[in-house]
Every structure is written in structure tokens, then in C-alpha cells.
Amino acid sequence: MSSCPYQNHLQPSDDLVTSYEATRAGFVALALEKNRRSTPYVAEARALQEAASRAKTPADLLAIKGIEAGLLTAAGLSDKALVHLQPEDKAEAINGLIKNFLEPAGEKFVEELVFRFLLTRGDALGGSMRNIGGVLAQRKLTRAIISTLVIAGIGYRWQHSRTRQWVDMTDDDSEIELSLRGLSWESKGESRTLIYNLTVPLVKNNVDMCLFNLSPDELQATEHKSATSYIALGELKGGIDPAGADEHWKTARAALDRIREAFSKAKHSPYVFFIGAAIEKKMAVEIWDQLEKGLLTNAANLNDPNQIASVSRWLCTL
Hints:
Order of helices and strands: HHHHHHEEEEEHEHEHEH
Number of helices: 10
Largest sheet: 8 strands, mixed
Helix content: 40-55%
Shape: elongated
Structural class: alpha+beta
Strand order of the largest sheet: 2-1-3-4-5-6-7-8
Strand content: 15-25%
């Protein structure tokens, strides 16, 4: 492997630029994910419609058991808001929904109810979709890293994002990237642990990817990791919209500057890398310049399978 790892998959800066085809595929992937995430909401709306159809008038809805949560959602209350409401507040919200919106709808009150339910659910979906590019990017990179480990015959463990439990690899690792926060393996006889979205005490900010020379148990036991336990830190920007590409790079560049500055004060120089989905020509030139100057150790376009495979091999052999 080259002493400058980026040279294994990049030659001119143009190699970093996102193609039109990749942009188009990225937007399609976002649309498909949005549809996947909306499926439960559509099913809930159908269940609400079926139950509410038994009511002859909007007021009859109050007597139907098992739909209170649906009525509250239709009234415009999010799941977070419900935690802070008393029973009398909830009753007031439902009565307001019936009086102000369902009764004026006449015979179409059930239809109006379902529309308003979906409106609130759609709002929640929109909020969850704001960082979906980052989520999809993490999944894609994770799958590439796992594949690199598997073909190298290296065993790994992975951390569940919700339970924070570490799980041993199995023969069937399909879709574990959907609920994965971290990966751990051995390189050169030493432990390696990669964690996504971690607040780094030295930097005092969240960093997209941190690679440690610690095992998961050692990492958990050490609340404030020493500077020398960090092998590499990276920024991962999955947004595919070209209109936001420059802003993503500015954010990442500032984060990478903070990382270098903080670790320089601690007299340690971990590897620093950047992976982006939307990279325009001007950005590519800046990234290439940082690579040539040694400010960045590695970089890749998330949409290029060869570049991501190369970065994954680099990470797994550090």
C-alpha cells in the first residue's frame, strides 16, 4: 500500500467529483428510503380509518376504544408532545379536533381525520429524513468495511445502536448495518474499534468516525480516552444534493481543522480523513490540495465503490 493511501484510488482531483449518474442514483435511494420509512404510517392510517368508520358522527369517535393515540396525532400532537400533557389536556385537544375540523367536514369526517393523522405523521417523517443522507452513507461505508474484514478472514464484533450491546459476527450478517453503531476487529494482533458519531472530549464536538487502538471493553471502561488511543478520525457527509455540497464541505473542513488543532495541542497526530457523497469540482480541488499537503491522510467519494473499498482496506489495516 502506498505511503499516501489516497494515491491507491485517486489520481487527479477530478476522481473525487460526483458524477451526474451518482447524483441521480443518490436521489432515487433517498426516495426509496423515504417510502420504506413511511410504510408504518400508512398502515397506522388504514387501521385508524377502519376503526373510525364505525362512528356515525364525529362525537361517536370518543366512544371507540383503542384510537385515542390516533385522534391525538390527528389533532397535531407529536409523540414528544404527548409526554408533557395531562389527561385533561389530551381530552381538550381531541374535542378541539372534533369541533373545529371533523364536524365541519360533514359526512367526510373520517376522511378528514385520516388526512390530519397523515399530516402529523408526515411532519415527523420529514424531521427524521433530514439526516437520512448521513444514515445511508454510514450504512454504505459499514457494509464496505464488513466486506473487507470478511474477505480477509478477520473476525469482528459489532455494537447495536440502541442497546449498545456488542454482538459477535455470525454467518448471516445481512442488514446489520441498519442498526450498527460500532465495529471491532484485530489488526496486527492489536484491538481496533470504530465508533460512529462520538463526542470527542479533546475536540469538544461530535466526530462522525473514530478509530481506536482499544477493544470495546477497554473503550467502555475509559470514559475520557487519551489522545494516543485515537488512530484515525474522519468526517462522513452523505448529503447528495449538489446545491448543499459546498456547505457540507465547509462544515466538514471546520470539523477537521478542530480535530487537527485539538490533537496537536495534545502532541498526537492521528490520521484524518474525509468521505463525501456530493463533491463538486471546486471542493475536489480543495480536498486534493489538503491531501497533497498532508492535512488530510485520505479521502474518497462515497459513490465510487472502488474508492470506498480502498478506504475500507486502509482503515482495516491501520
